[in-house]
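Hi R.,

Here's the chain you asked about this morning:
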Amino acid sequence: KINRSRLKVGGHAYNPWLKYYWEYELGQGNLLDFRIMIERWKWLNIKIGQWKLEFTRERRISSGAQQLVDRSILNRSFTVDRQQGIELYGRLAGRGSADFSYWAAVVTGSGRSATENDDKNLMYFGRLQWNVLGDDLGFSGGSDLQLHQTPEAILAVSAVTNRSPFTRFSSSGGGFLAGFEQQEPGQYRINQTNVETAFKYQGFSWQSEIHRKEIIDKLNANATTTLSGYYVQAGYFANQAFSWWPKPLEVAVRYASFKPDRSQDTELDESSLAFNWFFKGHRNKLTAEISSFDYETPTEELKNELRFRVQWDISF
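And the predicted structure, written out as tokens:
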């Protein structure tokens, strides 16, 4: 089985500022992205269609540009993934550190390829990003392939609220987390926040996210469950410090911690180590990764798992 096989088409029509993008999953036969972007002004742009919301940097970065084989253990529970709607976004570039980017969207909150909104409620999303050193890192990838000679850093805060039958989203559309199998129209009010950082300089890269998610069951006495988690991730092209280190080789590490219910002591931890060999950037790379997972239940039962993966990622 090929984990991901995508057909991607993008460009502009009539004018360079009238852009389009289309992405199709060949293996599963899913239309993932379709959007039109009007980007005539730097400070105000418009996007219409279906796309991955910019709620988390980890999820927004393409699967083909990930620093490790896949995303962290937080992604499944906290991503709001692909939605359909309209978004305003832009960059307010002042002098020096007075540089900000923003995104504000109104979407259906029903997930990928939804043909209707179950309860007429909408999802509202916002993200404010401070480009600390006057440059926007964007969502191009985690590794510092450009070997930035001047440091670049961001600090971003995101929030989303929605009411629907869904407690999680993925490339398959709306779904449910464990314990929320009942799915009635408008049953769950979801409130989420995310604080994230990113940094790149001379082959070193860093990113982190801190998540909090509140699930309110409107059909069962407003019962509230709060999820939380965080991860930190870093990578380095060590040839910047050691002449004997191969130039195309990057080492990367990640630690993630997830609590599926803050009222209980259940916790899942991930520790990962990866090596990337870049033949031609993210378009042709080989990744070897080893991960350790520790799962602690309320009864203090500990479960450990060790996973090793090798992936060849190629785009053409």
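The chain has a mean pLDDT of 92.

Let me know if you need anything else.
M.
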